[in-house]
Amino acid sequence: MSGQDAPQGGGRPGAGGRGSRGGRPPGARTGAGRTGGGDRPRDDAADARRDAAGRQRGAARAQGRAGRTSAAPGQRARTGDVARTAAFDTLRAVEGSDAYANLVLPPMLRERGVSGRDAGFATELAYGTLRMRGRYDAVLAIASSRPLDQVDPPVLDVLRLGAHQLLGMRVPAHAAVAETVGLARDRVGAGAAQFVNAVLRRVSERTLDAWLDAIGTAADPHGTDAVARLAVVGSHPAWVVRALREALVGSGRDVDEVGALLDADNAPPRVTLVARPGLVDRDDLAAQAGPDAEPGTLTPTAVVLPGGDPAALPAVRDGAAGVQDEGSQLVTLALAAAPLDGPDARWLDLCAGPGGKAALLAALAADRGARLVATEVQPHRTRLVRQSLRAVPAHAVEDVRTADGREVGDLEPASYDRVLLDAPCTGLGALRRRPESRWRRTPEDLAQLTRLQRELLASALAAVRPGGVVAYVTCSPHQAETRLVVTDAVRAAARAGTQVEILDAGAVVAGIAPGWAATAPAGERREVQLWPHVHGTDAMHLSLLRRL
Questions:
Q1: 9 or 418: which carries more pLDDT confidence?
Q2: Residue 425 annotated in active site
Q3: Which CATH class is domain 31-205?
Q4: Which CATH architecture best describes the domain 271-323?
């Protein structure tokens, strides 16, 4: 399930992921023998164990005692200010409790009374450090007198925070070093603080460009391994860089776009709202959002915010609007616009949590006199779906169920006119939203996920009636999760006696987004692949399938 249907909370292509299982950069391993003082998108099993703060129950507790953005907050005389402390505690929760930063940090800031510039500083410091971890670990490996695998994880997190202030934020070098040393003294001890001071002073001696040259050369000394250089400079695991290069080529784009794609992954996404049809007009939503709000470029429902708290808007509080990436809106609108044969009265969202697409579908269904059934396998996510649907007219929502989507096709064969399958995936298209996810996913995840995707798509094709349409959607561009899953599912259906037609999704999208043709790749392709560096959206995939 994609990560863009929730509140949305940074440079150039890194040594970070090269040869590292799960994306942990070399030299950043955990284990014994350290000195100096005292790390997935949707995983259903893990989601079931998470608490409200995003921490995975039963996981090990966090260790530790008790391009340029964001200006520094006012400097404080005491050691370790509240913004840096919150960022540090977030990194420890991510590392030690398998938590998601976007679920941990906002409530932490509220509980500690951190707001305004300090809250913005803490957010950029935490998220930016997590995104650029691979790059900074490569820098620290050169600047440190010790191998990084001999540095305690809490101390390493302090160093990463300092590196981001020095190389990724508009914080004066003296303030970045002094305040981070104060944080170290407060959180990991005086001895570790001396080590942090020495390392960060060495980091501050070079510019960002000089460090990028240094770590790129260290990763690719002979100039023969472009992926290794891109991985370390762009702060992505090497296997992810390879997968993104293959996905670009597979979707008809130039492989040389990968650098721009990595840059887009490393930039904080803007907040995008959806004006749910029949519940709030887009112009009214934009007026609520203020004079700096802009209409989306791909859909008639999107409003883009420059910043601020979307939860403060009346339409968002009431459920008439919500936070939803414009790519997520586009694929949902495309399902509703896809041509079908026969009645158009009963729709299904097969994997509906947390409910952003379901709410948009239900609003569209209400306008047409159709009804939506939403299913979700995790009970707590089912509750989120119900909450998302609270503003939709009751007659448009037939049911919200906790159910295994793989079983729906057998239990309700040929029962639906339109089916949305937003499949659980690696989330490689939404790396800018969950900054820690690139370091958690591994190539080994693909086997389990693609098997689940095939089973879910088979169920969706069984649940839709002949003449009806299924939208297969992922927030990953990985070829194994997109085109290959669709091809295999169509072939499997044919072997079982069901014929499936792959519709021209690009033509459907062009009817929604008039400027689509200018961004579409050359050649005959019936699926749609969005890209953050081209469309400003998550890298959503859409295939439209009609059962014959």
A1: 418
A2: no
A3: mainly alpha
A4: 2-Layer Sandwich (3.30)
